[in-house]
Amino acid sequence: MAIIQGTEGNDDLVSSNSRENDIIVALGGNDRVEARGGDDLIYPGLGNDRIEGGDGRDTVRVGGDIAQWEVYRYEDEGILRGPEGVKSLLDVEGLEFADNPGTYELDDFNEFFAYTYLASNLDVADALGVNPDAAWDHFRDFGSVEGRQLSFDGNAYLAANPDVLANEDFGANSDQGGARHYLAAGRAEGRPTDFAGLSYIASHEDLISAFGVNEALGTEHYVQNGFNEGRAVSFDGLDYVASYGDLIDAFKGAGGAMAIEDAGAAHYIQNGRAEERTVGFDGLQYVASHTDLIEAFRGGNGAEAYADAGALHYIQNGYAEERVVDQFNEASYAAANMDLASAGVTSADALAAHWIQYGLAEGRTGAYDPVVA
């Protein structure tokens, strides 16, 4: 057995015997280690290192706890990224972590999600195309050291696009399928990538008990079970926040619409349900009550978009401005515009959406004068 030790600088450490079991201690620096044959134990130390195990069973041992490290595997290669740097692995079988007993098999870790990496780093996708091998090469050689992440949520993308989820070519492989569709079509189509997983949980009593405020589990449940069960998101976190002055004061600075939506849903799950709070605000009615908001928001995509824009405006501005929220009278609007019934525009939401999108611009009349801000 040979012991090969490097320095605190950048070293090339190559075993001189292709059959011997070596202990290689690289120490600091950005090192290249070539263990060759034998069952070798390699301590890479601090730095960004390239480790080639060669024949035999080779094990890399790093400091800290496994929870501090990200482990990626692609065919016979791997990446370890953590507190001691980035370790690029080739023909390495075992991983050991100083704070954890035993040896972990590299093959037991999930394979690198190449499509997710590309969807998370669109500049790389634009440069390389949708090529999984090229994505791995980029991550191994550049992205891992640059700190690039696999942040695209394929489950959320599928949940936000039920037609894609229903397509067996994509929905059956949730994270990779979602990323693959997004790269192939969804990005160009401008499809949404976020799903209100907390509002989905808040919509179902059994999920509140099962998942609490774990949004990832809620989204995963919808993709794997809820969609096929016919479940939907009926709770609206924005309208919930807009229904209570104390919640408006607490959450209006949380960020954009999705952040406030999540904050509202989390509050309901953790507190509001037990307090028997309800949703009393109607964002669609609010927009329909103000001509300046109609002008601002009618370019949106339908009733849901108007309602969300209205709730967000009320939370961030309208509440402080003491704007009224329910001036629109759908019954009077329908009575003054009898042609709408024959077109199927009869529900309260459909009438409000019609007034916002068409009625005001067409000069239609109703039984009220909308408030002019």
Features:
Hemolysn_Ca-bd; Hemolysin-typ_Ca-bd_CS; Calcium-binding protein; elongated; single chain; Serralysin-like_metalloprot_C; 6-stranded mixed sheet; alpha/beta
Give a quick precis of the structure.
This protein is an alpha/beta fold. It is built from 19 helices and twelve strands. Among the domains are: 3-108, no CATH class; 283-362, no CATH class.
Could you walk me through the main structural features you see in this protein, from its secondary elements to its overall organization?
Helix 1 (114-120) packs across helix 3 and helix 1 (114-120) runs parallel beside helix 7. The chain has helices at residues 114-120, 122-128, 132-146, 154-160, 162-165, 168-171, 174-189, 197-202, 205-211, 215-226, 237-242, 245-251, 257-272, 283-288, 291-297, 303-321, 330-336, 339-342, 348-362; strands spanning 2-5, 12-14, 22-25, 32-34, 41-43, 49-52, 59-62, 70-74, 77-82, 85-90, 94-97, 104-105. The strands form two sheets. The protein has a six-stranded mixed β-sheet with strand order 1-3-5-7-11-12, with no helix packed on it. The protein has a six-stranded mixed β-sheet with strand order 2-4-6-10-9-8, with helices on one face. The chain starts with a strand and ends in an 11-residue tail after the last helix. The chain has 373 residues and is an alpha/beta fold. The mean pLDDT is 93. GO terms for molecular function: calcium ion binding. InterPro entries: Hemolysin-typ_Ca-bd_CS (IPR018511), Hemolysn_Ca-bd (IPR001343), Serralysin-like_metalloprot_C (IPR011049). It comes from Teichococcus aestuarii. This is Calcium-binding protein.
